[in-house]
Model the fold of this input.
Amino acid sequence: MLIPKRCDVCDKELLLGSARYDVDIRVASSFDGYLPELDEVDATEESREDKLAKLLENLDAISPEEAEAGVYQEIQMTLCPECRRKFLAALGDMTGKELQSQPKKQPILLQ
Ligand SMILES: [Zn+2]
Done:
């Protein structure tokens, strides 16, 4: 049996067959390939042992859940048309791009 869902933002009931939008967001830590050398220490910097001790101290201070959340998060939402519009406008404000007027992908025409 199909059960009507609710908008995950405004909690409006999404009647069966009405417009709704699924949003899947994946936020993953990115690696640029650069690893700072622990040995690159000049006379004014802390020793390698001090740096390692500090690093291990910082790792102890956060829970595994916090550490994981800092590396990878997945967010899934279902939105009503109004919240979709607000969501895209907020993303547009953040990126400085007009996301709502982007054209759909052109279909590939077979001859
Ligand atoms: Zn909504």
Remarks:
- The beta strands are 5-6, 13-14, 21-28, 72-79.
- The two ends are 42 Å apart (CA to CA).
- The mean pLDDT is 83.
